[in-house]
Amino acid sequence: MKIDKIKEAIEANIFVHTIMADDYNSVEPHFRPESIDRVENIIQKINKDKIIDKVLDLGCGTGFMINIVKKRANEIVGVDVTQAMMDKVDTSGKASIKLINADTGTVSLPQNYFDLVTAYTFLDHLYDMKPTFINVFNALIKDGVFYADLSPNYYFWEGVKKLDPNFNLYEPIIQREVDAVWKKDQEIEFQFGIDKETFKKAEHQKHTKGGLMEEELRDLLLNTGFSKVEFIYHWFIGQAQLINDESINKELRYSQADFIHQNLIKTLPLSRNLFKYIGFIATK
Fold first, then answer.
1. Is 279 helix (H, G, I), strand (E, B) or coil?
2. What is the C-alpha to C-alpha distance for residues 282 and 262, in angstroms, rounded to an integer?
3. Rounded to the nearest 5°, which phi and psi values hold at 56?
4. Which end of the chain is more exposed for a tag (fewer CB within 10 A), N or C?
């Protein structure tokens, strides 16, 4: 039964992302310059303590992470189930880039080989994360790093799902998130002609399980064998409205957003329900 569900999620992802491949880079917000800068800063911090020579990127898609890490790595392997997405990857540059069309939980990988494994806006597409985590652990060298990010935060989704989607007097900041949770499947169906149920199956951890939970991730990673896990919370509610408010000087709005972010980080775990996304850095 579980194998059937895993297969169903893989097939849904291939179907959805084959249709979205041509437009993916323009419709997904993580391709915006500020998002790229944030991830580049995280990779730079990892690179201060760790050599990043051999990198494995899981759920590589059209190459978001590959474009960032190829400035530092000499060898990159990208894995994705959707060939149409990988066809968009830019393999230019000094790094040797190999792309594998396969499932991240079952793909054959060299053992104790990679310095860094990345998984960006990907884990929520898996029906079961455990096989992928085991594969990552085995593929990493000792003290290697697993960096995953921009997965839906369970605690944020839990809060939004308690709100009435038919209530029409929410503040715009709240209404935006209610629509994103309750109506995203409708938006995708309208824009790409993808039926809602298939879209939900392609994002099982988000739409069925309600997002990724810090406690469950920590237990799963530590039980897999990782020695340390640090969590990343990102994109607080209202941040989009603030940084896109052109009535405020750009430098000022970005500094204000950073100030709010840093103060909310200081109040974790109480503030974690205010962040849309969760990520982590796990060390083998």
1. strand
2. 21
3. -115, 125
4. N
Looking at the DSSP assignment, which residues form a beta bridge with residue 140?
114
Side chain identity at 22, as an amino acid letter? D
Low-confidence ranges of the chain (pLDDT < 70): 1
The DSSP result for 27-42, as a single string, is H-GGGSHHHHHHHHHH
Q: Say if residues 144 and 166 touch (Cβ distance below 8 Å).
A: no
- Please tell me the predicted confidence (pLDDT) of residue 1: 66
- Cα torsion 102, 105, 110, 113 to 10°: value is 120
Q: Which residues pair with 43 in a beta bridge?
A: none
What local confidence, expressed as pLDDT, does residue 83 receive? Answer: 98
CATH class of 2-283: alpha beta
CA–CA distances in Å: residue 167 to residues 15, 152, 162, 170: 34, 23, 12, 7
Res 170: pLDDT: 93
